[in-house]
Design goal:
By secondary structure, this protein is of the alpha+beta class. Bound molecules: pterin cytosine dinucleotide.
Length: about 800
């Protein structure tokens, strides 16, 4: 356990001076003299590719090559999809998932399955010349019937999108606990609702990009990618290029946001590498914003048909949910998102009997995968909406029904009766959801708002309160490693596998190391996101860095400290237990003048330094952390919203987050994480929707149409940390990177419905932009579903 000198302190982010003064190095800052790729994409959602005419493009100014699937031959794939994670044995036995395997190919060769799918690559001396030439590539496409929704794709006579499949069902599984049918039979109340979370995506300020440079000698390749998962990308390149791992290095430089969208392997990354080897020179591809909307993964797009069985006093007896996921043309990550949804549906509530059935359906839309929360916002939306409905039916206050069902601190650890994605039983290891609720209600001024609601209505103001409670399994395994060394100047260098996309790892990991080792924060440098630094690693996904890498850094730092003390003991002729490290110096306790600097300790174990046999050559240690299972973070959000019943506009008057991510390493960083997540969640609640028309053409493919929240849309947040240390890792940490994004859609939509209670409207979808809110009201001039899929 760290001593807490820096752990828990809101120290300023080490990376900020670099970033704020424009000295960070993003993908486009790397590789000046390279060739540039523009990708030719399908304009149609479903079509047979019968011909490609590259003649005009090939003759265009600056063009070096125009490449199609047939040019690439076997380098085009298909390869087993590297982001596709099948079920492990336990989940296979427990949920019996039927899963269609996915493949990745660099360029479409026969059939295109969504508008935006890559068909050809133009390589030119300049990105603009490449883009101009790309528009000269002639495509012959024979349109095929388009499936723009799961309902269409599930029709018995629907064309089957993927060759070799017998239906359009990409995945199907069932999770059950105890006796759900019995619970529904014996219930006093059964409440049912159909809820829809629309298709949304992450919009990092830096879109995707890749730059590949072949080695001049030796046949290797280095790729820089704005990826969250450099090691997995290296492994995918090993397969697609047929090179051994030691010939490939992947570096994630500074990355301007990822949000899960950059946590998969994309065809373009493999394509850029293949082109670099083919052309024997450096090649770069940078995604445009329009490409990002079309061909980076989308997320959400789930429809839940959910039922609760309740006792007359509002206590939940059972939950039944059948949900359908529109996976688009490709189920990129297999079970990750849908299983996350299923596993988190019960949330922090006591639900004794459970039946959850999931069906993932392919359609002719862009592929679907993880976006911050990765299936959890959808689960929480369905559960909180149905709870609000149950409260109404039974005549309970929405806070009261939650109070009666939420787990409390004395219920922990709580076995939810099902398995988590890692194959362990889903055991909520700790936390105090009921305590979080009470604190959140207090911070929100819940009773006061309830009391004033009618008065406000009498004044023509429609104000409502929404509550949402979540849990999140964080810190998923299998393991991570970290290395720490002291260089000859006495500075500490910590190396980790994970890259950062804005989470502040350079600071928080340095805090952990500095505390553990007894050095100053400014003497620690964190290096990350390079396969040459650390051979194996997962990625910055699933809110796992603080738990896994944080504990691995603590382990490496502890070992390093032991090594330093051994050397110092020899040099200072004092037993290690009588030594301490203070401000980067080893001192004899009580005799501060008797000391050894870390630089001197480092020099002592270098060749000729005199003490090599004592501690090995160089002060350098490796640490690891392998969690036994995930550790659950939790929290409660309360939104106070005012609806303008004339225009349908929703304003947030107050927004409270009370959360528990275990021991907080850096409160200001955690608050930033939550604020960012809440802003994205508010976008998901009120604005953001990837709308497709009946031809499966994306009609909200720019920031003019896909609206993200602006500063006035996000109120000042009240954020309260409730720290229940995790017992599953030495530092007591739980993850927080996604938590902020999980509850806002449920809380905000709950508040809208509550505000509109006098009109007796039900809100069953998100987002709810003004036209849709107004469309629910009597005599609205707005048709309800302008530009959006109905629930
Ligand atoms: N932290 C802490 N105390 C804790 C837990 C975490 O101080 N008890 C700190 C960590 O040290 C880290 C940050 O909070 O600096 C987030 O930690 P963690 O929860 O471990 O999440 P990860 O670092 O693994 O980041 C991934 C997570 C995910 S999955 C998405 S999506 C997401 C997110 O982080 N994308 C982000 N936050 C993001 N923030 C930015 N700026 N950009 C993104 O793309």
């Amino acid at each position: 356990m760290v001593d807490g000198r820096l752990f828990g302190a809101s120290v300023r982010r080490i990376e900020d001076p670099r970033i704020l003064t424009g000295h960070s190095e993003y993908l486009d800052d790397i590789g000046g003299a390279s060739l540039h790729v523009a990708v030719v994409r399908s304009p149609l959602a479903h079509a047979r590719l019968t011909g490609i005419d590259v003649s005009r493009a090939s003759e265009s100014r600056g063009v070096v090559a125009v490449v199609t699937a047939s040019d690439l031959g076997s380098a085009n794939g298909p390869f087993p999809h590297p982001s596709w994670f099948p079920a492990n044995d336990t989940i296979q036995a427990a949920a019996n998932p039927e899963l269609q395997p996915e493949h990745i190919r660099l360029l479409a060769s026969d059939v295109v399955r969504y508008a935006g799918e890559a068909i050809a690559a133009v390589v030119a001396t300049d990105p603009y010349l490449a883009a101009d030439a790309a528009s000269e590539v002639g495509l012959e496409l024979d349109p095929l019937p388009v499936l723009a929704s799961p309902d269409e794709a599930l029709q018995p006579d629907a064309p089957i999108i993927n060759e070799g499949w017998t239906s359009n069902i990409a995945a199907h599984f069932v999770i059950a606990a105890a006796d759900p049918d019995g619970a529904f039979q014996s219930a006093d109340h059964v409440v049912r609702g159909v809820f829809f979370v629309a298709r949304q995506t992450g919009t990092p300020i830096e879109p995707r990009g890749a730059y590949a440079a072949p080695e001049r000698v030796g046949g290797g390749l280095t790729m820089w990618s704005s990826t969250q998962i450099p090691h997995w990308l290296r492994d995918a390149l090993v397969v697609s290029l047929g090179l051994p791992p030691d010939k490939i290095r992947v570096v994630a430089p500074d990355v301007g946001g990822g949000f899960g969208i950059k946590s998969m392997i994309y065809p373009e990354e493999l394509l850029v590498a293949a082109l670099a080897l083919r052309l024997d020179g450096p090649v770069k591809w940078l995604e445009t914003r329009s490409e990002h909307f079309l061909s980076a993964v989308h997320s959400r797009d789930q429809r839940h048909d959910i039922e609760l069985a309740l006792r007359s006093d509002g206590v939940i007896l059972g939950l039944r949910d059948r949900f359908v996921v529109d996976t688009g043309a490709s189920n990129v990550e297999a079970l990750i998102v849908p299983y996350n949804t299923a596993a988190h549906l019960q949330g922090p509530y006591r639900v004794p009997n459970v039946y959850i059935e999931c069906t993932c359906v392919v359609t002719n839309k862009s592929p679907l995968s993880s976006y911050r929360g990765a299936g959890r916002p959808e689960a929480v939306f369905a559960m909180d909406r149905i709870l609000d409905r149950a409260a109404k039916e039974i005549g309970l206050d929405p806070a009261e029904i939650r109070r009666r069902n939420l787990l409390a601190v004395q219920d922990m650890p709580y076995d939810a009766g099902i398995f988590y994605r890692d194959g362990n039983r889903l055991v909520i290891d700790g936390g105090d959801p009921r305590g979080c609720l009470e604190r959140a209600l207090e911070e929100a001024g819940y009773e006061g708002w309830r009391g004033r609601q009618q008065t406000l209505r009498d004044e023509g103001r429609y104000v409502g309160i929404g509550i949402s409670c979540y849990i999140e399994g964080t810190g998923i395994g299998p393991y991570e490693v970290a290395e720490a060394r002291i260089d000859p100047s006495g500075r500490v260098v910590v190396s980790v596998a994970f890259p950062s996309q804005g989470q502040g790892h350079e600071t928080t990991l340095a805090q952990i190391c500095a505390d553990q080792l007894g050095v100053r924060l400014e003497d620690v440098r964190v290096r990350q996101g390079d396969t040459a630094l650390i051979a194996y690693g997962g990625g910055t996904i699933a809110s796992r860095t603080a738990v896994l890498v944080g504990n691995a850094v603590a382990d490496a730092s502890t070992r390093l400290k032991e090594q330093v003390l051994k050397v110092a003991s020899d040099r200072l002729e004092t037993a290690p237990e009588d030594l301490e490290i203070v401000d980067g110096e080893v001192r004899v306790k009580g005799i501060p003048s008797k000391r050894l600097t870390l630089a001197e300790a480092s020099a002592a174990v270098l060749p000729g330094g005199g003490s090599p046999r004592l501690a090995g050559p160089g002060l350098e240690q490796r640490g690891a952390f392998e969690p036994s299972r995930v550790t659950f973070a939790s929290g409660v959000h309360v939104a106070i919203a005012e609806v303008d019943v004339g225009t349908g506009e929703v304003g947030l008057l107050r927004y409270v987050v009370v959360h528990d991510c275990g021991r907080v390493i850096n409160p200001v960083i955690v608050e930033g994480q939550i604020a960012g997540g809440v802003a994205q969640g508010i976008g998901g609640a009120l604005l953001e929707e990837l709308v497709y028309n009946e031809d499966a053409q994306l009609i909200t493919g720019s920031f003019m149409d896909y609206l993200i929240p602006r500063a006035p849309d996000v109120p000042d947040l009240v954020i309260v940390h409730m720290e229940t240390p995790s017992t599953l890792n030495p530092l007591g940490i739980k993850g927080v990177g996604e938590g902020g994004a999980i509850s806002p859609p449920a809380a905000v939509i709950g508040a809208i419905e509550d505000a509109l209670a006098p009109f007796e409207v039900s809100v069953s979808r998100c987002p709810m932009p003004p036209n849709q809110v107004a469309g629910l009201l009597p005599e609205s001039p707005f048709p309800v579903w302008i530009g959006a899929q109905p629930a």
